[in-house]
Amino acid sequence: MSSYRVGLLVPSSNTTMETEVPEVLRRVAATTGDRFTFHSSRMRMKTVSESELAAMNADADRAAVELADASVDVMAYACLVAIMAQGRGAHRDIENRLTKTSADAGAPVDVVSSAGALVAGLHHIGARKVSLVTPYLKPLTARVVDYIEGEGIEVQDAISLEVDDNLAVGRLDQGQLPEIARRLDTRGADAVVLSACVQMPSLDAIPAAEAVVDLPVVTAATATSWQVLSALEAYAPVPGTGALFRG
User: Which residues are the active-site ones (predicted)?
Assistant: First the structure.
């Protein structure tokens, strides 16, 4: 049994990252006996707009330095669209930048991101074509689609729920997600991204959504959890948590 400190870099208005990722790791801990604690640093963002997302990215170094003071074992930058809105491949630059920032602060640590985790997770399960659901306005969803396609994964269809208030995104009813997923065009798709946003609740809806679409389901939160666990070498499969946790 091992003990790990998990650092979360989150938007100031985020209310879901600090519930769903800890819940996934709690399920893993129940299997392995490992212990995880969670430590957050926040960056100001209330409206999911390009200007606020860019400002949040600029503030990420300050948040990483503060989180480094807690001597965490891994950091996860938990705002997928903030990175994807910066253009193709941005997760590599931001992860490398924050890794250097943390090292310069005296705390070398792996830095992962929800954006990088989603594309890595889709590649891990062999998904070459996906359909997805986002809470974003359509122009930002288009940026997400372009980003994913820039990573070599075709997007067959995307549904935008068009909510720009980040607190409102966290209040969306995940019980509606299976029926929303049913409306996706999934012809030829290898997987469904049920929530391309760590703020949009989705974890409890995964089993029902997989039954509806008859395809593997991944979410930004489960991908981030998988990437965090992989960085810690603490991964274990757990039921009811989607395609990345089937072993």
Answer: 79, 197
